[in-house]
Automatic annotation (TrEMBL):
It comes from the Bacteria. InterPro entries: AhpC/TSA, Thioredoxin-like_sf. Residues 69-185 form the Alkyl hydroperoxide reductase subunit C/ Thiol specific antioxidant domain. It comes from Flavobacterium azooxidireducens. This is Redoxin domain-containing protein.
Length: 233
């Protein structure tokens, strides 16, 4: 009887340790996407086929909230347009990352709004990943300020397959990734402000600034909450 009790205690203790290990080692972002994307793709495709855009958005939000938030973003070595690589773990501050495509023109007012936010928030690293080849992205990059790191990735380039498959071919673009200084995913949001062509430029910039600033505020608040929690403990 004593032996059985000791065995049960041993098993329970080791299960507890395994649980602690899981908590200390969050799932990688790519693994979280790979595990859950097929189910999401099937359900969302059906929703959009039926014209149920509200459900399509709900499914995306559910994927993010239940599976991707809290995962650890992969420590990619991003290709900068300036020829130097950007290792994400070397950043050491929260990251506001947004993806675009070289062949897709951003909405009216998006780039000026991002440039303004990057100028105002020097304690946040602003990164833009453009899906495309280097020469295509060079033209695109000229529109952004020097406060924003412009990177690129293409499936034909060495070592780019994983980032293209896990980001471009799953969550689409434009997509904002809010990531803390330890590469923990804080949130992911798709799209930008809806600005019809007739929207005055100033108004379009204001609309995008407001939308991006709300997302950025979430990242800043997450950082502040973590800091307060550390002080309390």
């Amino acid at each position: 009887m004593k032996r059985i009790i000791l065995i049960l205690v041993f098993v329970a203790t080791n299960l507890d340790l395994l649980g602690q290990t899981d908590q200390e080692s969050p799932k990688l972002f790519t693994e979280a996407v790979r595990t859950n994307f097929l189910k999401y793709k099937f359900q969302s495709s059906e929703a959009y086929r039926l014209g149920d855009f509200e459900r399509g958005q709900f499914l995306f939000d559910s994927l993010v909230q239940n599976q991707l938030i809290g995962s650890k973003f992969n420590d990619y070595s991003l290709k900068r347009v300036s020829n130097r690589k950007l290792k994400m773990s070397k950043v050491k501050k929260p990251i506001f990352l947004i993806t675009y495509a070289a062949w897709c023109i951003p909405g009216k007012g998006e780039i000026p709004a991002l440039n303004k936010l990057a100028k105002e928030n020097k304690d946040i690293e602003f990164i833009v990943i453009v899906w495309g080849k280097k020469q295509e992205v060079k033209k695109f990059a000229k529109k952004f300020s020097s406060n924003i790191e412009i990177c690129y990735a293409h499936k034909n380039y060495k070592n780019d397959n994983e980032i293209v498959e896990s980001m471009r071919e799953t969550l689409g673009f434009p997509t904002c990734y809010m990531i803390d200084e330890h590469l923990q995913v804080v949130n992911i949001k798709r799209g930008s402000a809806s600005t019809p062509l007739k929207t005055p430029t100033k108004k379009a910039v204001e609309m995008n600034y407001s939308l991006f600033n709300d997302r950025l505020s979430e990242l800043i608040k997450f950082k502040q909450d973590k800091k307060e929690l550390l002080v309390t403990n």
